[in-house]
Design a protein that fits this description.
With about 210 residues, the protein is an alpha/beta fold. It has a single domain, classed as 3-Layer(aba) Sandwich (Rossmann fold). It has eight helices and seven strands. The chain has a seven-stranded parallel sheet, sandwiched between helices. β2 (about 30-35), α2 (about 40-50) and β3 form a beta-alpha-beta unit. α1 (about 15-25) packs across α2 (about 40-50). The termini are close together. The mean pLDDT is about 95. Bound molecules: adenosine-5'-triphosphate and magnesium ion (MG). Adenosine-5'-triphosphate binds near residues 11 and 82.
Length: about 210
């Protein structure tokens, strides 16, 4: 399956989610093909740190501008896509079986998601293949009194033809550490809240 992790807005967590999902899939025994289509190359860089530190399993992330690469139909394929490469983004959207959109809890992020969905629809125009679009709240507030995560999720529920994943990822330091150390959150601290929530999130995405 080809999964594209994308959104229009920067800093929504695309590379963090791509990296942690890729390692999770490797640990589940899947063959993983990973591509970084964002010229910032964060996904590629974190895999390089992992390689330098000799953490196992090793993750290969190919840095590409366009999809001039053979995709292995037997593999779980992950694309990290950023707005800085609009042509690559469009191409990835056309190849996708599904798109996962991380949305931080704020109104501007909801607006950006609406704009992004318009780009997705335009890119898929004339295509008959099914596309699943999954949105979820990333960097959700851990404090119950803060309403923005609930409000954002409610706004996402109003968007047509998207699935809102109820498994949120919360704003936690462990996600930042994950990227600086080249380790997935569940490798850094198994049994932590971050590890458990990521496990639930990935299971919901890949359970069938
Ligand atoms: N759930 C989270 N909790 C805490 N920090 C997070 C979380 N998700 C992402 N971050 C942090 O937010 C920053 C942006 O994340 P990331 O680089 O994954 O976003 P991005 O969407 O790929 O950004 P860009 O558009 O610049 O490529 C990073 O410092 C990352 O560590
Ligand atoms: Mg990124």
């Amino acid at each position: 399956m080809i999964t594209v992790v994308a959104n229009l807005k920067g800093g929504s967590g695309k590379s963090t989610v791509s990296f942690n999902l890729a390692i999770w899939l490797l640990n589940q025994g899947h063959e993983v093909q990973a591509f970084d289509l964002d010229p910032q190359l964060t996904f590629h860089d974190v895999a390089q740190i992992r390689k330098d530190e000799e953490h196992q399993p090793e993750l290969e992330v190919m840095a590409v501008e366009t999809l001039s690469v053979e995709v292995n139909p037997a593999a779980e394929v992950i694309f990290d896509v950023g707005a800085a490469n609009p042509e690559g983004m469009r191409e990835a959207i056309r190849h996708a079986n599904r798109i996962i959109i991380p949305v931080p809890p704020s109104q501007p992020d909801v607006w950006a998601t609406q704009r992004f969905l318009k780009i997705v629809r335009e890119a898929r125009e004339g295509m008959d293949e099914q596309l699943e679009i999954i949105v979820f709240v990333n960097r959700a507030d851990t404090h119950h009194a803060v309403r923005e995560s609930d409000d954002t999720e409610a706004a996402l529920e109003q968007l047509p033809d998207v699935t809102v994943l109820p498994q949120r990822l919360y704003q936690r330091t462990i996600y930042r550490r994950s990227m600086s150390e080249g380790l997935a959150v569940f490798e850094l601290w198994r049994g932590s809240k971050g590890s458990d929530e990521f496990d639930a999130f990935a299971n919901a995405l890949y359970s069938n």
